[in-house]
Specification:
The protein is an alpha+beta fold. It has three helices and nine strands, in the order E-E-E-H-H-E-E-E-E-E-E-H. The protein has a seven-stranded antiparallel β-sheet. A two-stranded antiparallel sheet has the order 1-2. It is globular, with a radius of gyration of 17 Å. The N and C termini lie far apart (54 Å). The N terminus is likely disordered.
Length: 193
């Protein structure tokens, strides 16, 4: 291998001279049944982060924020631009592009909506900047408003992902938590329960 380099979004990647074996990394306590339906490509490693929080707003308000690409920039500060490339009826199959920016640079991610259940669930798969990201958002009624559960899997090239997981996973988790806290603030400001 050659040395690690910081890629956009602060995720270190490794340049490899030969293709290594596949590695699958999940959050502590996650078993094989928690692996993504489509596993990582050969020579890739995955980092999985699951988070949930209760939002004091109605489920339709929360889902309205999640399903609207125009609002993504308001609760995800790394999203600089979002554009729909091709819309499909019912949303599944819709393709889009996001431009992400942070202190490390810019990355362009292209994605596809993989799941859409109105008012309940949204899934997507994005790729770019040397990584693949899958995300699933599920909204359910809760006595205090809405329970939002998010499951994200980041697939990175290279056999050294396993060694870097203690560094990568907290970064991914912290960004996801920051975004969810911002979403919570915006939803509760709009229509508190």
């Amino acid at each position: 291998y050659s040395s690690a380099a910081e890629e956009p979004l602060g995720v270190p990647t490794w340049r490899l001279r030969r293709e290594p074996r596949s590695i699958d990394i999940c959050a502590p306590g996650a078993g094989s049944s928690d692996r993504p339906a489509t596993g990582p490509s050969r020579g890739a490693g995955t980092v999985r982060v699951r988070q949930s929080l209760v939002i004091a707003a109605a489920p339709d308000v929360v889902f309205g924020w999640i399903e609207d690409p125009a609002r993504a920039r308001l609760w995800q500060p790394d999203v600089a631009e979002t554009s729909v490339l091709h819309a499909e009826p019912g949303l599944v199959g819709t393709t889009f592009r996001e431009v992400l920016k942070d202190g490390h640079g810019q990355a362009v991610m292209e994605g596809r909506v993989t799941e859409f259940s109105p008012g309940r669930a949204l899934g997507m798969r994005m790729h770019g900047a040397g990584m693949t990201v899958t995300a699933r958002y599920v909204v359910t009624q809760h006595p205090q408003g809405t329970l939002l559960a998010v499951d994200q899997t980041l697939t990175l090239p290279g056999r050294f992902t396993r060694l870097l997981e203690p560094v990568i996973r907290p970064r991914v988790a912290a960004r996801a938590r920051r975004d969810l806290e911002r979403l919570k603030e915006l939803c509760e400001r709009e229509t508190p329960v």
